[in-house]
């Protein structure tokens, strides 16, 4: 059952109109209507609220949510991409920023640069800023660039934890080798990542909540280059 179908079924089983559900969530009826026709999807805070309200596990909601956000493995499988490249990218991510890897010489004034190399493959992550930041990750083979991802983000609240962000990013998977997992929680911290597209052309964003307060957000996009 798709996310929108499940939402309609759960709502009607409780005898609720779209207006009543919207009132409970503190949003407009139009937002609920768009969810139920697949025009948009709830952010992590609303997803958690739906899970608690309908007494349905968040894992089940996320599974259907994945399907509609093109987050399933089938939608995101990396066709025509050498599996070794994906494996290398995941190792590089885990060994650099997420793994507290040491920085190399700045490529630009006050930039933060991290590099990882295996044979003829090279990964470089370079970013500017801190609480508000922007950067780029890139892959090279024989010193020829063939893939990149740009990102920009910001800290929204003092309860943000850089350690939790790195913890989530260290769980990057071969199926979604971009940032962290679709959803991850440790204590009151919750990480959520939405991706549209595939390895050669994609867009996405990630969020971190502390309880029900959004403390961090980051948008990213990228793909193959030649």
From TrEMBL:
CDD domains the UniProt entry points to: HTH_XRE
Domain HTH cro/C1-type: 7-61
PANTHER family assigned to the protein according to its UniProt record, in alphabetical order: HTH-TYPE TRANSCRIPTIONAL REGULATOR IMMR, TRACRIPTIONAL REGULATORY PROTEIN-RELATED-RELATED
SUPFAM superfamilies, per the entry: lambda repressor-like DNA-binding domains
Pfam families given in the database record: DUF5680, HTH_3
A GO MF label: DNA binding
Record organism: Clostridium diolis
Keyword annotations of the record: DNA-binding
InterPro entries xrefs: Cro/C1-type_HTH, DUF5680, Lambda_DNA-bd_dom_sf
Protein name stated in the entry: HTH cro/C1-type domain-containing protein
